[in-house]
Structures are given as C-alpha cells and as structure tokens.
Amino acid sequence: MHEGLRYERERTLPSGDDVSRAAEVLEGSDPEEILRWAVDAYGEGLTLSVSFGNPEGMVLLDMVSRVTDQVRVFSIDTGFLFDETVRFREEAMARYELPLDVVRTELSVEEQVERYGPQMYTCSPDLCCQVRKVAPQRKHLAKYEAWATGIRRDQTPQRADTPVVGWDEYFGVAKVSPLVGWNSEQIEEYAREHDVPMNPLLGMGYRSIGCEPQTRPVQEGEDARAGRWDGSEKTECGIHVANGKVGRA
Q: Where exactly are the structural domains of the chain?
C-alpha cells in the first residue's frame, strides 16, 4: 500500500484532489494494489461492474474476490443478451460468493418498441444503448461513491487516456480502472493461472461480447471489437465513452 493513500471507512471520502493524487501515485501499480486502495477508500460504497461477456470483467471479479467479500457486483441486463451470457452469469456467481445486482431498464423491449419504433427490436445502437445500458447504470450508481471497471487503454483509441482512478462527472462517482494498463496477454495469463471461468462464446469466435443483435464472431486478424456494431462506426456503448469523449449523450 502506498504511503498516504489509506482511508478508513469511517473517515471522509476521498476529495477530488485525493482522487487526482491517487491516480498519479497508483499509475503502474499492480491491479490488486489499486483494488485494495479503492476498498480502503470507499468500503461498501464501491461497486464492481461485470458484463459476464468479456475476460477483463471476469479477471477483475476474481481479483476482487481475493481482496474483499463486501463489494457488491452489478451487471446490466439489456434484455438482448445471449442466452449463453445469462446462464454463465449464474454459474460464475455460484463460484464467486459476492452479492450481485442485475440492473435492468424499467422499459420492456415491447414498451421500448412502442415508444421508439420497430427498429428497436434489433437493438438500434445509439438510442438502445442509452435507454437500456447507460440510463439504468446511472440510476444504479446513484447509491454508490465509486465504481470499478475492467476497461483497458489499448481496447479502443477513445480509452487510451483513461486514468487508473478518476472522477466520472456523468455518473457522479469515482471510476476505478485497475486493469487499465494491462494488455490482452496479461489478462489471458492471469485467467490461466487462476483458472478464471469464461463465457463459452469466447471459444466460438467471439472476442468482445455485448448484445446478441449487435455482436458477431471476429475473423482471424480482426480487432477484438470488430464484431461489435458491425457495419457502423460505433465502437462504444456510451458507458465509458460517447462521441469520442469521456461523457454521455
């Protein structure tokens, strides 16, 4: 633990200056050390997001389970997930005995179609992501002070400047990204070493798994996220980045 970065849960939460300082001091640190700082700083005010589709979330879930049993996990269920993802979510949480909140929008798919049009049956990308992912997450995170996520800088150009710890203005929480400096080889190595379970679709040609209507397997040589929103210029759902910025519509 870095000197001066320990916070007792009963003490005042980290200020904006504290978060900025932590981002500088923790840069390059081991992900588990970053997680320990976040747990010490925020306690039960920290929550972990896991999609149960991609390796990073599962690796981070495994790491969190080794640091604490108090952090709540949440996962966004858009209503368009692969059946394999939904089944895997239940199987994985039987192994990792952390509390799980499955977060859904208040609109059913049918109500969404009635309101926005029949194109929403196939998950019309930008509006659907806002309605079924971003808005429900914003409502859920209102109960927390910090949010841990498994994104990496090398996944997309828009994520290249993501800090280890930063303040997310849109969601109103500190955003902790312990794996931000890792690459895919490090993720795979950790998963092998700790026997981390993975979504079975990852063995079927999928490398980045989102909603079924907007996800396809990728071909050899393609970028891992090439199978997301195929045929469009969209690369982000808006939870992390929207319109090329760390912000939302």
A: 16-204
Distance, CA of 246 to CA of 241 (rounded, Å):
4
Given the DSSP bridges, would you call strands 165-168 and 173-176 parallel, antiparallel or unpaired? antiparallel
Structure tokens at 48: 């972990």
- 235 pLDDT band (50/70/90 cuts)? low
Task: State the Cα–Cα distance between residues 77 and 102, nearest whole angstrom.
Answer: 6
| Residue 76: strand pairing partners | 103
Q: Where would I find the H helices in 101-183?
A: 109-116, 125-129, 135-141
* Cα gap 96→100, rounded to integer Å: 10
For the question of residue 237 being annotated catalytic, the response is: yes
Do 179 and 151 form a contact (C-beta atoms < 8 A)? yes
Per-residue model confidence as pLDDT tens digits over 178-200:
999 999 999 999 999 999 999 99
Cβ neighbours, 10 Å, residue 91: 12
pLDDT digit string, tens, across residues 201-214: 999 988 888 888 77
CATH of domain 16-204: 3.40.50.620
Q: Which of 123, 128, 129, 237 is flagged as catalytic?
A: 237
State phi, psi for 71 to the nearest 5 degrees.
Answer: -75, 130
